[in-house]
Amino acid sequence: MAKITLENLAHSYLPNPSSEDDYALKELNHEWVDGEAYALLGSSGCGKSTLLNIISGLLQPSQGRILFNDVDVTDQPTAERNIAQVFQFPVVYDTMTVRDNLAFPLRNRGADASYVAQRVQQIGEMIGMEAELDRKARGLTADAKQKISLGRGMVREDVNALLFDEPLTVIDPHMKWELRTQLKQLHHDFGHTMIYVTHDQTEALTFADKVVVMYDGGVVQMGTPQELFETPEHTFVGYFIGSPGMNFLDAEIAGRHANIAGTQIDLGAGYGAIDGKTQVGVRPEFTRLGTGNEGLPINITRIEDVGRHKIVRADYKGQEINIIADEGQEIGADMNRVVFDPAGINVYANDWRVKGEAA
């Protein structure tokens, strides 16, 4: 297990990068705690896999250093970093049995035969393939082969880190849930440092202690699922996490009030002078439908019943607002206002969150 430190780390696939836009991975300075589970979350092309491959040693960074437990490993090859990596698509030895595939990393390091047998049996049960241990890998389905890849990544107990690059892409939805649960249990039992790359927020939020949200080649926030939900530090985090994502409305900020296209709302905190493009952000979970003169006047465009609640889609002077209503709530024609809970309002300037001061 290892603490992983990134120092002034950046990478460009161009031979002579001349500006920040030339970098697929913009400069990072982060320390990831020994034994914690992290998810790298972001849309395709944001730099997640580039960062993972630099940590594993498959890619040499253009600048900066990688340290495992304060030891510089930047120039070390993958084999010397003592990590296990599972890729998006299955990598198995077709001519070997499932048992031999799982045993390979242990036998390659000269582990005792009795330990190998015990550990392979344990991992075989964990991935639900104990009945197939003596089958050849050739002919197995893609999701079965990926389970073998996952098992081979997890079979060693002495690794510095376990790295997963979108490992559940080819797994059926029900098995995805089971394997995420098993990965979480593995982390609980053995305390490996784990880094899990995904573009799926459900995978990230259910797997990780801390989620590292990446956007346009940089880290915009690292925090717990609760922190990402309640206080997104960047508008991308608010938009990307949540279903639906955070509402963002252009606003003029003055003290503890925001003027949104002619209507004032209470922000619940005071703000000084703010430069640039200013917005308020509020998640649909912190909204409610109202009547009379409270809140913002809206036009409801449609209502979606998703079973556990209703999503009300509305329009306020050309700006879209999503509202969460209880499943059993009757939505009458007089419900033409939306009210924001001040405790759930965030203020943004040029896409970054501005901290308010309590009144």
Question: What report would you give on this structure?
Answer:
- With 359 residues, this protein is of the alpha+beta class.
- It has 2 domains: 4-240, Rossmann fold (3-Layer(aba) Sandwich), CATH 3.40.50.300; 247-354, Nucleic acid-binding proteins (OB fold (Dihydrolipoamide Acetyltransferase, E2P), Beta Barrel), CATH 2.40.50.140.
- It contains 8 helices and 22 strands.
- Strand 17 and strand 18 form a beta hairpin.
- Helix 2 (98-108) crosses helix 3 (113-126) and helix 2 runs parallel beside helix 4 (142-154).
Counted by DSSP, the helix tally is 8
Question: Globular, elongated, flat, extended or rod-shaped: what is the shape?
Answer: globular
Task: Assign the CATH topology of the largest domain.
Answer: Rossmann fold
CATH architecture of the largest domain: 3-Layer(aba) Sandwich
Which structural category do the helix and sheet elements fall into? Answer: alpha+beta
- Quantity of strands, as a count: 22
Indicate the mean pLDDT.
91
What does the radius of gyration come to?
A: 24 Å
Task: Summarize the model shown.
The chain has 359 residues and is an alpha+beta fold.
Output the keywords.
359 residues, alpha+beta, Rossmann fold, OB fold (Dihydrolipoamide Acetyltransferase, E2P), 2 domains, six-stranded mixed β-sheet, four-stranded antiparallel β-sheet, 8 helices, 35% strand, globular, NA-bd_OB-fold, membrane
Element layout with pairings:
Layout: E1 4-11, E2 25-32, E3 37-41, H1 48-56, E4 63-68, E5 71-72, E6 83-86, H2 98-108, H3 113-126, H4 142-154, E7 161-165, H5 173-190, E8 193-198, H6 201-207, E9 210-215, E10 218-223, H7 225-230, H8 235-240, E11 247-250, E12 252-260, E13 263-271, E14 278-282, E15 287-290, E16 296-297, E17 299-305, E18 309-316, E19 319-326, E20 337-340, E21 345-349, E22 352-354
Parallel strand pairs: 3-8, 3-9, 6-7, 7-8
Antiparallel strand pairs: 1-2, 1-4, 4-5, 9-10, 11-14, 12-13, 14-21, 15-20, 16-20, 17-18, 18-19, 21-22
Family: Belongs to the ABC transporter superfamily.
Keywords: ATP-binding, Cell membrane, Membrane, Nucleotide-binding, Transport
GO cellular component, one term: ATP-binding cassette (ABC) transporter complex, substrate-binding subunit-containing
